[in-house]
């Protein structure tokens, strides 16, 4: 069995990576949230872009924003821009059940096609922490 742990957020002064997980599907939030916790992350979940923005503004600042691209109230890129306006140090990774309809920068924002394995999730988030996609 392979056990993955994300690199610590020691650059942020914490031992655990703080992830803001945004998906409108409760089943996906639950599954991915459990995967993130198994990877050693502190997870905060939101079911919409608006809720994610409110969480980010209230703080604490997430290390990583893992966002579905297709949210009911806004697209994930627009939501990420709003979060980054308040939390510019936050890294971003996107996920979706289909190929992105909006252009993404693969050098800086990893993209995960749902469903994905824990290994793929760990590699993408490690890339986001490092500032590059895997």
Descriptive key words:
single chain, 134 residues, alpha/beta, Rossmann fold, 5-stranded parallel sheet, 4 helices, 5 strands, 35% helix, disordered N terminus
CATH architecture: 3-Layer(aba) Sandwich
Global geometry = globular
Number of structural units classed as domains:
1
**CATH C-level label:** Alpha Beta
Mean pLDDT: 85
**What is the helix tally?**
4
How is this structure best described in words?
The chain is of the alpha/beta class. The protein has one domain: Rossmann fold. The chain is 35% helix and 18% strand. The chain is built from four helices and five strands; from the N terminus they run βαβαβαββα. A five-stranded parallel β-sheet has the order 2-1-3-4-5, sandwiched between helices. Strand 1, helix 1 and strand 2 form a beta-alpha-beta unit. Helix 2 packs parallel to helix 3. The radius of gyration is 13 Å and the shape is globular. The protein starts with 17 loop residues before the first strand and ends with a helix.
Give a brief rundown of this model.
Helices cover 35% and strands 18% of the residues.
Summarize the helices and strands and which ones pair or pack:
Blueprint: E1 18-22, H1 26-38, E2 42-46, H2 49-58, E3 64-68, H3 76-86, E4 91-96, E5 111-113, H4 118-130
Parallel strand pairs: 1-2, 1-3, 3-4, 4-5
Helix pairs in contact: 2-3
